[in-house]
Design a protein that fits this description.
single chain; about 300 residues; mainly alpha; 14 helices; about 0% strand
């Protein structure tokens, strides 16, 4: 049977859609479970489910995976462990709007990291597209109100979200160091397994210094969602999308996270859809088109 190949740009829309839900779920259960335990349960579930079909792929590609062992370790530490656990830690103390505004800076930092790692440069069209799409994201999260920005206050959670931007920028660029031809599912499974191994002692220590938590229905559903959607589907979509269009273009799609977060708020929390949602989404779309037309450096 012929394999189904999806457009990488479609995959890069699916990933932030699922990650927006991850942000909302993390915020929703932040009082019920500590971030490191949630991250461990998330990736443990992902590793088990992925292993059904990814483990045989990883075995067949074991020589290539071994050659890329340090890159895989870097991907696990930056994308699987630090980005996820620190993000869950951040949403315990930072308002959603602060986190969304800071997350919108990610596509700016990805090319900067790419410059230092690969001496890559941006075309004028890409640089302008990044600025335009960021403006659209900021219009959405600020509700087109300048006073929102003037009253922003920096919290420890804000600083943690900013560190997540750094972690994800490193993760996205490290993907370029992987040998060509490695199965995406095998790469994700190996990074997940490595992440679980590293997270076990960390989560164990956290359990001794934080209040105990009970496994309740909300936590179970949260783990199922973040373990399958944002962990498996989103990461596979992102990894394949980055491989298809490059980290600079792919990074632009992170702007869709605050846009989708607003959509979830209007549908799940009953908030009213406003004119600035449409304006911001349209501006983000224009920026994506501009960057997608620029050649990857």
């Amino acid at each position: 049977m012929p394999s189904i190949r999806l457009n990488p740009y479609i995959l890069l829309v699916i990933a932030p859609l699922l990650w927006a839900g991850n942000f909302v779920v993390g915020r929703g259960v932040h009082e019920l479970v500590n971030p490191w335990a949630l991250t461990l349960m998330r990736w443990s579930l992902a590793a088990v489910v992925l292993g059904v079909w990814a483990a045989p792929q990883a075995w067949r590609a074991r020589d290539q995976l071994w050659q890329a062992r340090w890159t895989l370790l870097g991907l696990s530490v930056t994308g699987v462990i630090l980005f996820q656990a620190v993000l869950y830690e951040a949403v315990r103390t930072t308002p959603a709007i602060n986190g969304a505004v800071i997350m919108a800076t990610m596509p700016i930092l990805i090319p900067v990291v790419s410059y230092f790692m690969f001496e890559a440069v941006l075309t004028r069209m890409q640089a302008l597209g990044i600025a335009v799409s960021m403006l659209g994201a900021l219009v959405v999260v600020a509700r087109a109100d300048l006073n929102v920005f003037l009253t922003l206050s920096i919290t420890p959670g804000d600083a943690l979200v900013l560190s997540c931007v750094v972690f994800w920028s490193l993760y996205s660029n490290l993907l370029r160091k992987l040998p060509t031809g490695l199965p995406p599912a095998a790469v994700l499974w190996v990074t997940a397994v490595l992440g679980v191994m590293i997270l076990l002692p960390i989560a164990g220590y956290e359990a001794t210094v934080r209040p105990a938590f009970e496994i309740t229905a909300p936590i179970i559903w949260a783990v199922v969602y973040v373990g399958l959607g944002p962990s498996i589907i989103a990461f596979l979509c992102w990894n394949v999308g980055v491989a298809g269009v490059g980290p600079t273009k792919a990074g632009l799609f992170i702007h869709l996270i605050p846009v989708f977060t607003v959509v979830f708020a209007t549908t799940l929390l009953g908030e009213t859809l406003q004119h600035y949602h449409f304006i911001g989404a349209a501006i983000v779309a224009i920026g994506i088109i501009m960057v997608s037309r620029g050649k990857e450096a």
